[in-house]
Predict the structure.
Amino acid sequence: MRVLLASSATGGHIYPALAIADRIRRRDKSAEILFVTAKKEVKLGIIERAGFRQTSINIRGFYRKSLLKNIATISDLVMSSAQVRWIFDDFRPDIVIGTGGYVCGPVIRLAKKMGIRAYLHEQNVLPGLANRLAERYADKVFVAFEESVPHFKDPSKVIVSGNPVRDAFLKTDKELAKEGLGMPADRKSVLIFGGSQGADALNAAAVETVDILGASPGYCFSVITGKRSYAGTEEQISLLGDEKTAFTKVIDYTESIYRYMAAADIIVSRAGALTVAEIGVLGRASILIPSPNVTGNHQYYNALTLSDRGAAVLMDEKNIAGGGLAAEIKKLVEAEGKLTEMGRLAAQYAVRDAADRIFDAIYEK
């Protein structure tokens, strides 16, 4: 089977694609797999490090605030169609899977035209524009959440699969993760991170939280800042002094985020769809702070899938400053059994076999 995966190289799209590709590689030893991404994302290296081939096309999203900038976008769109045709002629895929981003459009469209089976995977509760436009070309649409089904025009196409996560999230032991990261077993581990790019508001709240709780017995903190904000955040935390920062670790970025999430008793993060899925399969309590800067406020709806079930605390970004985040963390830690119960509820609604569900559906006869 020759499988072509089209995906944006942002973490929320590429990691589900990699999880799907890895499951295909494990269950179909003869499978040939090729990734197609946008040319501007080709240097990220995530795909090659996972052991897969990658090619790229000229494609970008439309600018909603500047019509002039869309001249180049339209030019790339025309060029991308020819590039996709060349890729298809060379690779000759049996199936095509798109996991989000504008790169999916011309790939899924050509698959439909050539009679090649085509699938989409939508990670968020509210589908992105690219997947909504590509729906009519897809044979089936996999969604992470039951709540997503009504947002597609043809519900008969939709399969609730869950969000596929990397196997490391399913296999990493909490105690071993804590030990490997040098975290004291008798302290509650709090992980604060704002996604692969970082988030200034969460970094600022992390500094305040370490300042307020860092000297208290019973806490240890991991703060993942994003590369852009690392130097400033690390300096601010270091200035708090050894008494408050003795059990605090600050890093810029890691592809091994599963180690920190597995070691955590509380995860404080944005509410990207993949992060929500990873929190679920790990069975962790969380405080979710949706980004106010995403299309359609879709992170808020992702967060509701956990908070409505009592598995997470949902906080507005404006409420985490001025000690607001520290107060919420303290309240959860001091409420007897609260973290355990939240983690149990998160795990109860998690889909641990999403990659297998997708594999079974695309390989069914």
The chain has 16 helices and 13 strands. The longest strand covers residues 32-38. The chain has a mean pLDDT of 92.
